Amino acid sequence: MNRRDFLRMAAVTPAALLALNTGCASRTRPVRRVIVLGIDGMDHFLLRSFMNEGVMPNTYRLVSRGGLSRMRTSNPPQSPVAWSSFITGSGPEVHGIFDFVHRDPETRVPYLSTSRVVEPEKVLSIGDLRLPLTGAKVELLRKGVPFWKKLTDQGVPVSMIKLPVDFPPDPCGARVLSGLGTPDLRGSQGSFTLFTDDARSITDDTSGGVVVPVRDYGDGRYNCTIRGPRNTMRAESPYMEIPAEVWVDRVADAARIDIQGSSTMLSAGEWSRWVELRFEAIPHLSSVSGIVRFYVKEISPRLKLYMTPINIDPMDPALPICSPSGLSSDLAREVGRYFTQGFPEDTKALSRGILDDEEYLQQAWIVLQERLALFEHELGRFREGLLFFYFSSLDLNIHMFYRSIDPASPLHDSTDPRFKGSVRELYATIDGVIGRAMEAMDGNTELLVMSDHGFAPFNRSFNLNTWLAEEGYASVSSPQSRGRDMFEALDWSGTAAYGLGLNSLYLNLSGREQGGAVPPDQAPALLERLKADLESVTDPASGRRVIANAYITSEVFPGPLPPYAPDMIVGYDRGFRASWETTLGSFPDEVVTDNLDPWSGTHCIDPSVVPCVLLSSRKPVIDDPDIRDMGRSIAGLFDLRETPEAGIDMFAEGEA
Amino acid sequence: MPRMKLKLDDVTMDRVRMVAGAGGYSSPEEFVMHVLQRELDSLAPQDAESEEEIRRKMEGLGYME
Amino acid sequence: MRHISFLLNGFFDMILYPFGWLPPIWGLLFISVASGLGMIFVFRAVSDQEGIARLRRRMGGEILGILLHVSSPITVLRFAGRLIRSNTSYLVLLLKPLLVMAVPFMILWGQLDARFSSSGAQEGFQVTVTVQYAEEVPPADSIEITAEGVLVVPPLMVVDTLEQASFRLEERNGPPACITVDGVRAGFAGTDTRSGSIVLRGFDADPSPLVLLTPMVHVVEGSGEGPVSGWYSLPGKDFGIFGMHWSWEAVFLVFSMVAALAGARIMKIRV
């Protein structure tokens, strides 16, 4: 189904409108079905402007019969934090997710905040072989009880499809397919590969993926090696690899990729369907499955063959991505294989220039098409209970194309005018999704469409660590290492604070950090001083304030906090964000610089700047709902003896 | 288990015995083992990930470099 | 040989015909169970049941002898020697039924592989076809490809080094499909939508004498200037049973074995 067909199908029928009216008329009547669409990154301002322009007719109808609310997002307004708040009805003080990245307080080593792999405790070594006697497992680091547990406990069927921050799934009786936070087969958040003999494309840069040099020795053949996950069943855990032969015909401008007995032929400019890869840990006994799509960027004069990150095969998942365990394969049988990684749109390939704008959008559209097919399938089988369905497309694509709608972006003028309508098209497609959900409604159904945060431009980068060094809060002892990650340039004994992740600032606290320099009794005063100093930082280029609010964590979140919690959350003002270099602890020369990465939109700033939205077929009775209220409010729509305690039921008169 | 002889002066040995007893250790050897392991973990963490491994896990997270 | 092949294909088509409109697992399960039972009946018919019973009794006695004389190493060794002799005799007794069943088993295996190991082409999906020439591949613009029931997707690419040409076909859900490459006409996979039908995975103008074992390869008449063989890159297939993914081989081996053992127990057949 192409986009046009989908939009046509999504046109709201009179029956659906009638159904919607019926739903509205029964404001207090419990319902049998609730559909929740989780649209990551749907922005209040953009939504309103596209509705006014007539781009979103279905959304307009939904809003005119129910409501459109600005909803308070989490602090910081990052997707893992916000969706965890949605799931648990609480803030980071309960669910424990403060940023995309946390750090080990003692060693300051950063790690992904949402999940981790626990290695097997007992391993039997026979020569080169390492046989685990206890299973390795992946652990979800999000704490708290999901709101739907109250529903499933009382017999309400729940499906959470592509649910963020739920890898590995914590199902609590629901059908769950993990979304954001699900790694690729190599354990990263998505690592592409480019095979090429174009010397200009070959660099040492490994962010987001690798460029693998290959060579044609005159027979039209390139021997490529596909590097998979590490083989933990062998000493030294070498990478498992699969050889592939790529044959090219430069006259026909086509290539044939031969892997493990199967051939895939592609012309230049074409994407392949999913190709299965089987990595053997122990031949004939133990293997893991992955899937990739290829894109032939160029054949002549040089080969440029792009390969997506190796996704976990939903037909035979190597890691737990769903519950019950057969769900991902059942879905793949119904709609075909699909991207399983949490960040499926390859934004890094665009940032690195491996894919151009058009190629990136092609890949993003493949992701969206797959998601639409999954959505159609789920909608078709939905009879009763709660269906949550998540779309990542608005978020990641607007991150990449905010420059096309923001004349102030340093990259606005260099963006091809052809792509200036891409944001509008995406919103129109989501409008089609809303239309399809409305069609599926009957008198016993409510529809809620929510986002986790809004969007703002990311035009100027703030080098938090450089600022800390300039203001005397951090001591740079080896200037030649300023450009290196992990604080290599720092002298910890003279450092009071450091920035890591997107909004997090930590004190170098004695007794908590190894070699910490700040005595605990001086911490409160230091934080107050940092807050005042940060909130007065201005951009030398424009005189504009860089940071809207610097929040002292212990003041905004009640109760004891875990040792990995940041001491301060930096809420950047509109137009600014933590620089790329700040996120992993390096020290560029300037404090504020232009952001020249295509990643030109952000929400990792002050929560007041990027509220989320809630569209609902039933009008909320409170004016300022919070994302933490969603679980209780959804549960309140059913006829239940017990509902979750956290949050406020935004649809119940008594709770207003 | 391999064995290793450790020579301690009298004063240190007395202190080890005293602290091990006060700390609830079953023997001075157990206390010494514990102290050694704690120090080794902080100086040369056994499971510490290499910088390459840390980077690999973050790879593809568009929000970061 | 071609006539035998035709008859065999027709025979299996007939057996699987009632399952053609059900999910393929049902046909596979039926044929696995039927094969298991068939094999055990054949085993009873051609094996020396009396001899097997005698040997099993003798071997039971020899094991008991070992257990009773554990304290006497010489006696244990004597019994062990006898046990090895009995085992050898047992294997000899099994040889005849195994030989009788070997050829039908290989034919059955080939038929099941042709019918259940690949999904065939699916509508909207492109299948890469590679054809092999005996000598030099003709220039791309002189290779003639026509298709019925499927769509040829240009371009045609030539791999001179391997004397191969490749192109793609797109399933159109049409009638049973054929392709013709430089005058060589061959059936194409997966257009028969009935489950359990043969999914052709290639063609060969010079098939091996074992053609009966490879019904997934379409035997074509002399190739002339055309390709001598070809193969279609089709997606594999598995079966969901008890929440696990089973290859057709696993389904067949497990269910035929279970059926055979159950049949042997019910019919009191000695194995």
Short descriptors:
heterotrimer, A: 656 residues, alpha+beta, Alkaline Phosphatase, subunit A, 3 domains, eight-stranded mixed β-sheet, 17 helices, globular, B: 65 residues, mainly alpha, 3 helices
Question: Topology of this protein?
Answer:
The complex is a heterotrimer of chains A (656), B (65) and C (271).
Chain A: H1 3-9, H2 14-25, E1 33-39, H3 44-52, H4 57-65, E2 67-71, H5 79-88, H6 92-95, E3 101-103, E4 110-112, E5 115-118, E6 123-126, E7 129-132, E8 137-140, H7 149-153, E9 158-163, E10 175-178, E11 192-196, E12 209-213, E13 221-230, E14 239-249, E15 254-259, E16 262-267, E17 275-282, E18 286-292, E19 294-298, E20 304-307, E21 311-312, E22 322-323, H8 327-335, H9 347-351, H10 357-381, E23 385-391, H11 393-405, H12 422-439, E24 445-450, E25 456-462, H13 464-470, E26 497-500, E27 504-507, H14 523-535, E28 547-552, H15 553-556, E29 568-572, E30 575-578, H16 580-583, E31 592-594, E32 601-602, E33 612-616, H17 630-636
Helix pairs in contact in A: 1-12, 4-12, 11-12
Chain B: H1 10-22, H2 28-43, H3 51-58
Helix pairs in contact in B: 1-2
Chain C: H1 2-16, H2 24-46, H3 49-68, H4 73-116, E1 126-132, E2 145-148, E3 150-159, E4 164-171, E5 178-181, E6 184-187, E7 202-204, E8 217-219, E9 229-233, E10 239-241, E11 244-246, H5 248-266
Parallel strand pairs in C: 7-8
Antiparallel strand pairs in C: 1-4, 1-9, 2-5, 3-4, 5-6, 7-9, 10-11
